[in-house]
Structure formats: structure tokens, C-alpha cells
Write a structure and sequence with these properties.
The protein is mainly alpha-helical and about 250 residues long. The protein has 10 helices and 5 strands; from the N terminus they run H-H-H-H-H-H-H-H-H-E-E-E-H-E-E. The protein folds into 2 domains: about 120 residues, no CATH class; about 110 residues, hpI Integrase, Chain A, CATH 1.10.443.
């Protein structure tokens, strides 16, 4: 497997395809971290996928990493790489498809930044995602199981009340943890049709309706943790206290 510094290392040597390596460098140093605001985990996943492909091409051609060019990676090379993931490395179809999607993302970026690479992008896009023979099985918790989980916090304590409300809101909205930690008091709108505004990645906003029981939990929680606060308050709904001061847990 290519080490994580090889992509950057190749660009510092004499390379046969300067366009390829310049785009690789900019994709990981500018596009993903700065423009797409991707997390380190996401960037690592993209890097690992592209490095695996480059490592495979290097082995197939018997050349140095710096000798790889756009022309060497056509749909046939990519297909052999994906097949190798399954047969030699034992990767699942899901892993195969994830890696293909990340490689596609790089080629789409390359075509946007450098028109001469459009042909290579189109070549890569000819390789389809692979269908899985396994049926999608979605398991849901039973109502009794949900009740059992929600009954775990000790609601005779403030911490228990907070934990229970957190789980109730998480269950009702289907929010991600990072969305939960961004909720401010002003994001919850009560009335005939109560809703909550969730703020996701890359500025995405969505509004979710709230059940009547969730509203009651919210009102109880606010009376204890945000007494006297305005409904338009910028205060974070969930916080920790340090030195008597409220601090967001983000």
C-alpha cells in the first residue's frame, strides 16, 4: 500500500504528467480541506482510495509512482483495480463502490479545473457501480426497546433529565450528533405545528416536525437549563458548565 506521503512526494520529483500530480495536490490541499470543508476522516478516505489505485497502476506497469500518467488509467485499468479489491483483498461490494465514488470525485474535480482532462473523466465514469446480491436489510428498534433505552437515565437528577431529553430529541428528529450540538434555542419553533431547524454539513439546513411528547420534554428541559431565556436566544440548547459559565460542547 502506498504510504500517505507518497502522493505529495511524487509531486516533488520529476514527473511525466505534471497536470495529474498538480491536480492531485490541489484536490487534497485546497479542494477537500478548504473549499469542501471536509473532515480529516473524509480526506483520509479519499486519499486512501486514490493511493490504492495509483499503487495498483504502479505495480501493473512496473514503474515508479512519478511515471504514472492520466493516459495509463483508463476504464480497463480501473476495472482491474476494482476486481482486485474484491478477489485479492477481500473487500466487499460496498467498499468497492465507495472507492470508485471517491475516485470519480477526483476525476470530476480534475475535469472542472483542467478541460484537457474531460476525456479521462468520461473514461472513468464508464465504469459502473456494482450491484450487491445482498438485500438491504434495515432493522428498527421496537417501541418497547426504545422505551427501555429512554428509561435508562436517572431523571431524578439534572444530568439524567438532560440525557433523556437528548435521546428523545435524537430519536424524534433523526439528527446527527454534530447537528444536535449546533442547535440553538431559536431553532425550536413551538405552536400548532412545532418544528426544529437542524444545521448540517456545508451549511445545509432542514426543518423537522416535533412530536407533542418531545415538546413537553423540551419545555421541562428549558425550565431547568435555560430558565428565563428568550425563544429567540442564540444560546446553544445543550452545553456544559465550567466555572459557572455555559460553554458549548462542540
Amino acid at each position: 500500500m502506498v504510504k500517505s506521503n507518497k502522493i505529495n512526494g511524487a509531486s516533488s520529483k520529476t514527473v511525466k504528467d505534471g497536470t495529474l500530480w498538480a491536480l492531485v495536490h490541489d484536490f487534497f490541499k485546497e479542494q477537500l480541506p478548504k473549499l469542501s470543508n471536509s473532515s480529516p476522516h473524509t480526506i483520509y478516505a479519499y486519499r486512501e482510495s486514490l493511493e490504492a489505485l495509483l499503487d495498483f497502476v504502479k505495480a501493473e506497469k512496473g514503474i515508479n509512482l512519478s511515471d504514472i500518467t492520466f493516459e495509463m488509467i483508463d476504464r480497463h485499468m480501473l476495472s482491474r483495480f476494482l476486481e482486485n479489491l474484491e478477489t485479492a483483498r477481500g473487500c466487499s461490494i460496498e467498499t468497492r463502490n465507495h472507492r470508485l465514488n471517491r475516485i470519480r470525485a477526483f476525476y470530476k474535480y480534475a475535469a472542472k479545473m483542467e478541460p484537457t482532462t474531460v476525456f479521462h473523466r468520461d473514461e472513468i465514469l464508464k465504469v459502473p457501480l456494482k450491484k450487491s446480491n445482498k438485500p438491504d436489510i434495515i432493522k428498527y428498534m421496537s417501541e418497547d426497546a426504545v422505551k427501555a433505552v429512554l428509561a435508562q437515565p436517572d431523571t431524578t437528577t439534572q444530568k439524567g433529565l438532560r440525557d433523556q431529553f437528548f435521546m428523545v430529541l435524537l430519536y424524534d428528529t433523526g439528527a446527527r450528533i454534530d447537528e444536535m450540538m449546533k442547535i440553538r434555542l431559536r431553532d425550536i419553533h413551538l405552536g400548532k405545528a412545532p418544528t426544529i431547524t437542524l444545521h448540517g454539513k456545508r451549511g445545509k439546513i432542514r426543518t423537522v416536525p416535533l412530536m407533542e411528547s418531545t415538546v413537553k420534554h423540551f419545555q421541562n428541559y428549558v425550565s431547568i437549563f435555560h430558565p428565563g431565556e428568550s425563544v429567540y436566544s442564540e444560546q446553544f440548547l445543550f452545553y456544559k458548565t465550567r466555572g459557572g459559565q455555559k460553554q458549548t460542547t462542540q
